[in-house]
């Protein structure tokens, strides 16, 4: 039988309650729980646990980057499509109207920037709104889709 040395330690009451609960569940003494925890802390396996935790965090970051990449692709395509349609549908202005158009454009741009600032301050983002709109369209098919499917109002 191995000899043991007594040691008095102080625990936070919440931590002690967790140790007691674990000891009851595993049907071992509190000393055995504390001894195993200290041995684990002092052993070399903590490096393995740290590596595993780091790997999980890196995996999570990788998934978040993939999501951001998809969001950026959607935004790029959205802006590209908007500009393409706007350029195709907006006729050029005559020379005499260009000065007033620039002034009106500056005024509209200022309004746009203020609106964008308010929207960003609320935290409601275009891609979240787009996702909600797409989901609601899938839940409630349009009149055209119902007629295509053979349904009548």
From TrEMBL:
Biased composition, class Basic and acidic residues, residue ranges: 144-153
Disordered: annotated span: 131-153
Ranges of residues in domain Ribbon-helix-helix protein CopG: 8-41
InterPro entries: CopG (IPR002145)
Identification of the protein by name: CopG family transcriptional regulator
Species in which this protein is naturally found: Rhizobium puerariae
């Amino acid at each position: 039988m191995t000899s043991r040395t007594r040691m008095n330690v102080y625990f936070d009451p919440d931590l002690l309650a967790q140790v007691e609960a674990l000891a009851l569940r595993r049907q071992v003494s509190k000393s055995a729980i504390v001894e195993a925890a200290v041995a684990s802390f002092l052993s070399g396996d903590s490096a393995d646990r740290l590596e595993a935790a780091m790997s999980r965090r890196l995996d999570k970051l990788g998934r978040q980057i993939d999501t951001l990449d998809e969001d950026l692709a959607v935004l790029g395509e959205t802006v590209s499509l908007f500009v393409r349609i706007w350029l195709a549908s907006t006729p050029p202005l005559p020379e005499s109207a260009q000065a007033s158009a620039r002034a009106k454009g500056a005024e509209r741009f200022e309004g746009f920037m203020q609106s964008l600032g308010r929207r960003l301050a609320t935290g409601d983002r275009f891609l979240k709104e787009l996702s909600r709109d797409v989901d609601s369209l899938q839940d409630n098919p349009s009149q055209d889709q119902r007629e295509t499917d053979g349904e009548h109002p």
